[in-house]
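Figure S7 source data.
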Amino acid sequence: MPRLAALPSRLAAAVAVAMTVAACAEAPVTGRQQLILLPEGQARQMGVDAYRQIKSEKGISGDPRYTQPVNEIGRRIADVSGQPGLAWEFTVLEDEEPNAFALPGGKVGVNTGLFKVAENKDQLAAVMAHEVGHAIARHSAERVSRQAIVQVGQQAIGSQYPGMADILAQASTLGLILPFTREQEAEADHIGLMLMAKAGYDPRAAVQLWRNFETLGGQRPPEFLSTHPAPGSRIANLQQIMPKALEEYARSRYR
Ligand SMILES: [Zn+2]
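Tokens for the predicted zinc ion complex:
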């Protein structure tokens, strides 16, 4: 985002109001300062509504080969998430695409197709903890907030400053195409690695999991890869925080 001083006064005022209204949030684990305008209750309600819709569209799997590990991992991750009060819910969805998601409010979905990539509980926990990382760091609300600021900016600027408006329009479009920013992805990896370790799952499995995704990406890249950074770059980041995660793993009350 441009510096306030470089912006026309109306936009600067709008952004300043937005920043004052928002309680500046802090991401768990990394402590990164966030600007979140969307009220928590509203985000949770959006999550609950979307979850209901996705479940009815895709269908729920009752296959214990899938539900047993997902429920066990979900329970443990929720337990160490620092947000035990959330109405956590873990559902296996009938979908061959290897993917998973976590919506605001602790609503987690795991596709049956993910079991083609995740070979064991530790690897499954790596994906689920990554998604829960996005949820507890409120990444969706943060992304929506950034877009809102961009839109406010576009309205305030109008046609007087076409150069600036173009730049902001591009930022807004990119924000819609890319589900999460690279910074948020790295943060979800970081939070996820710590969560899985704390929940008693071997954090080293995260590295193998991303390698499996890479192998699978041969002919037709899975959806997960198209919305996430290349496995190579994320593995390097994971290796950097691995020593801390292994300490957490050694201390886990589940071991
Ligand atoms: Zn992600």
